[in-house]
Amino acid sequence: MSLLPPLSLRPTPAARMPEVAMLMAAGLGKRMRPLTATRPKPLVEVGGKALLDHALDRVRAAGVKRVVVNVHYLADALEAHLRRRAGDLDIVISDERDELLETGGGLAHARPLLGDAPFFVINTDNLWIDGPIDALRLLGQRWDDAAMDALLLVVPLARANCHRGRGDFHMDSAGHITRRRPGRVAPFVYTGVQLVSPRLLVDPPAGPFSTNIFWDRAIAAGRAYGVVHQGLWFDVGTPQAIPAAEAMLADG
Predict the structure, then answer these.
(1) CA 6 – CA 94 distance, rounded (Å)
(2) Other C-beta atoms lying within 10 Å of the C-beta of residue 33
């Protein structure tokens, strides 16, 4: 299977980079215990730097100006860290202290803070190294607002470092994504990085729910796409993944 982007998804010089990103940082970090007994998962360090700081550095380098961060578990520690690291970024807190809303509910709750243009969404338990092109700029250049509600950064299953799943999506020659069927293997893994339109968040359910609800709607409408990350990616969701990721980073 060719990993070259299809013609319809190749960069367009007029593409405008998003200036807003949401960092998903409210989870309980259960898989990362015992490291998360006294600190939230986004503050766990990989390569001497907090996972949250890796994400902040990426969005800053991509030209993002406004960063929305949702908080729940050990929220005060996250807010204090963000105040120290804000720099030139406009960081806004989406407060979920009263109820953890999961990924989809967190997005819906933060919707008033995200503006009316497409924005990045980044899970803070993954780490990536850019290839020939910055991953966030790749998403921005591939974005087609007339055709897309969601554009997911995916990586081939064979290059999903520290990941133990069977893959998440299939992708056709036009970039449309479809789900892995039960009991099968899919060739692409979602990296935890996506570019979405506010249209994706219309009519959300009440309370906590997964982003899968939004994605399934977009897939059914033919408005969910993927683009292949050309660099390295690490699923840093457990303590065991940290030394493995650090060793590969050191080799690079």
Answers:
(1) 36
(2) 12
Instruction: Give strand ranges (E) for the chain.
Output: 20-24, 45-46, 49-50, 66-71, 90-95, 119-123, 126-129, 150-156, 160-161, 169-171, 177-179, 188-196, 224-228, 232-235
Contact (CB, 8 A) for 104 and 204:
yes
Output the CA torsion sign for 6, 219, 152, 64: positive
- Residue 16 structure tokens: 């405008």
Residue % of the chain over a pLDDT of 90:
76
DSSP 180: P
If DSSP codes are grouped into helix, strand and coil, which group holds residue 131?
Answer: coil
Specify the pTM: 0.91
| CA–CA gap between residue 113 and residue 194 (Å, rounded) | 17
**Nearest by Cα to 126 from 56, 53, 51:** 51
For 48-60, b/e burial (b = at least 16 CB within 10 A) is eebbbbbbbebbb
Helix intervals (H) in the chain:
51-61, 75-85, 102-110, 135-142, 212-220, 241-251
* Residue-level pLDDT at 145: 96
pLDDT of residue 141: 95
Q: Which amino acid is at 58?
A: R
Side-chain half-sphere CA neighbours of 85 within 13 A: 21
- Cα 236 vs. chain centroid, distance in angstroms? 13
User: Which stretch of DSSP H or E encloses residue 24?
Assistant: strand 20-24
- For residue 160, CA distances in Å to 93, 121, 193, 203, 224 come to 31, 19, 14, 33, 21
Task: Report in angstroms the alpha-carbon separations of 173 from 7, 180, 225.
Answer: 9, 17, 11
